[in-house]
Design goal:
alpha/beta, 13 helices, 22% strand, eight-stranded parallel sheet, single chain, 34% helix
Length: 407
Amino acid sequence: MSFVIDNIQNGDLPFSLHIENGVIAAIGTDSAMPADTERYDAAGAMYTPGFVDAHVHLDKALILDRCVICEGNLPEAVRLTAAAKSAFTEDDVYARAEKVLEMAVRAGTQSMRSFVEVDPRAGLRSFHALKRLQSDWADMIDLQLCVFAQDGLTQEMETYTLMREAMALGGDVVGGCPYTDPDPVAHVSLIFDLAAEFNADVDFHIDFNLDPAGTILPEIIAQTTARDWRGRVTVGHATKFAAFTPTRRAELAQAMVAAGIALVVLPSTDSFLNGDRTDPLRPRGIAPAADIAGEGVMVALASNNVQNPFTPFGDASLIRMGGYYANLDQLSSDAQMEHVFQMICENPAHIVRGGPVSLAVGAPADFILIAAQSRSDTIRANRPVMGIVKGGRIRLWAPQPPLTRGF
């Protein structure tokens, strides 16, 4: 397949791309491109690598019709979801997850890490559903599956057996949740043991409250170093960072850098579930991603949940998530907006170890076009994705429709 996209912007001068056989065959001006090839006019849209959502729960998305939220806190969300997933079927999980995956693709996401819960209630049903989805949607999005122990391990070791089975069947990453386990340290050790057995990266949900005491992060840092797993460990949530003193925050962030541990902040879920609703001055409830990144930590923003007890809203748009986070963290400058953009693009690509696709001749033709003047403009104004190219094919082409003015 061969085509040309003209009038793309990625700086000051517009340029054209010739796509052929799945790669970028040429970069240049309109006049330099083959004259007899199908052409598309980008109308000045901005080129960028596709977005990467490094922390999503596809298996438990879109279940609000099965849950009655009363308290709006983490224990309730865990309890309601645990009850609901006992009734999940493979086809049910597939159907709901596919809806979210399509939302994400239309919003410019081209890579994703989804957690998938494996335990005596869910069995391997959700895992099998997402493995099917991973294959069926491989032309549109690179989907990585993190086999995940949401409800603990040490009190229910059957979960560990099921996790091992899922990894043997093609799981990509091992995920743990120490704060739901009666023995968080042992939980961390078991997850690392499983990761070593399958030579897999590790992704933990941690420190999901605003109490500065009792962080599990030092234990994860210590085990990452002892097991030589540098660059292969990610932690999500970590909202205790919002409650640490600046000195303690900097110390832990610097230790994460030394151990090569990345952080994924989940603005929508974290701000919804944290904070006392009876307190009119309740905190924002999110880890200060920009400050932590300022210490050198690789930090990303992600969706986490979409329309379930953890997050009763969402459309899988990372542009929207970036703008929401920037507002919560009171960011304003163009440089800060640029950094937020990196947190949904290059940074999470590094975390899922896919690497951002470069704009170069011979590079895979995987990118998106945004109706924006710049990256900062994208975040500030929630600009729409107007073009998607994946695998060297146009997957979406949606130029802005004209307005009809006059009387």
